Amino acid sequence: MVRPPGPDRPLYIRIAMSLKARILAGTYPPGSRLPPEEELAADFGASRSTIRQAIADLRGKGYLTSRRGSGTYVNTEPPIEPLSPRSGPVYTGFLDDLDDEAHHVHELHRSRRTIIADEALAARLHIPAGSPAVRFRGTRVRDGKVYGVATDILPADVGDRIDAQVLQRCATVVDALAAVGHRVQESLQRVEPTSLDPATARLCGASPGEPALSITGVAYRKDGTPIDAYTLVVISGYGIGLHLVRASDQVTDAEHSRAVGLHLQP
């Protein structure tokens, strides 16, 4: 079932997502103390009980730890490694929205290659340097229009399970991961300007050197294990929208209390 849009989610979940964004952006670095509850309540325009529930949500997910008499701290090793170096904000959203996008997207000219992980890739996937990994690459198409090139690199034990038959019935590698029992639960992306190299330009039918956006990230399973180090290069002319909603504008504490009774999880 597709989740409702952000404004319809419980307020504590949206506050938790905003706090998580600050952690991943480095505003609250690992080991640092969160502001007091009353300060966060004023910041978000919410009650202290709502702030406590947001903190409890992040504590249960491994982002925060509470110390009696001292306060709440960011875990020294949060489940997802924050962006480093800090270069800009992190905007949080829900993978459900990208799942819906998969209905409009497919990949052409797919390739599959076994590679050896260098130190940088090994660090991203939490595998030993020199380990084998499987790289998939394909031209991304949305509603019949080419918009970029996707590269997904998976640990060999995961990538080897995605054969030609799995790829044929799945629109993207993320879908293929779900099909073989490795559903992506969370990911953190960095968006930076770039220019098209000759190989990427050829796959997109564009010219080398044209401006583009490079979206790089790591996708994680529910247990926090990295399973996909990916890059999506988006060509000029394809727009990606951000829908931003202020957490306190849509849901009152009374509505929040009713929503909490449903035990919804992000």
Outline the structure in words.
The chain is α+β, with helices and mostly antiparallel strands and 266 residues long. It is built from 10 helices and 8 strands. The protein has helices at residues 11-25, 37-44, 48-60, 95-101, 119-125, 156-159, 164-169, 173-179, 198-204, 253-260, and strands at residues 64-67, 71-74, 105-116, 132-142, 145-155, 186-195, 211-220, 226-235. The strands form 2 sheets. It has a 6-stranded antiparallel beta sheet. The chain has a two-stranded antiparallel sheet with strand order 1-2. Strand 1 (64-67) and strand 2 form a beta hairpin. It is globular and about 60 Å long. Residues 1-5 and 249-266 have low confidence and may be disordered.
Search tags:
single chain; 266 residues; alpha+beta; six-stranded antiparallel beta sheet; two-stranded antiparallel ribbon; 10 helices; 8 strands; globular; disordered N terminus; disordered C terminus
Whole-angstrom Rg: 20 Å
Largest sheet: 6 strands, antiparallel
* Run of helices and strands: HHHEEHEHEEHHHEHEEH
Instruction: Characterize the quaternary organization of these chains.
Output: single chain
What percentage of the residues does DSSP assign to strands (E)? 25-35%
Number of helices: 10
Write the layout of secondary structure elements.
Blueprint: H1 11-25, H2 37-44, H3 48-60, E1 64-67, E2 71-74, H4 95-101, E3 105-116, H5 119-125, E4 132-142, E5 145-155, H6 156-159, H7 164-169, H8 173-179, E6 186-195, H9 198-204, E7 211-220, E8 226-235, H10 253-260
Antiparallel strand pairs: 1-2, 3-4, 4-5, 5-8, 6-7, 7-8
Helix pairs in contact: 1-3, 2-3
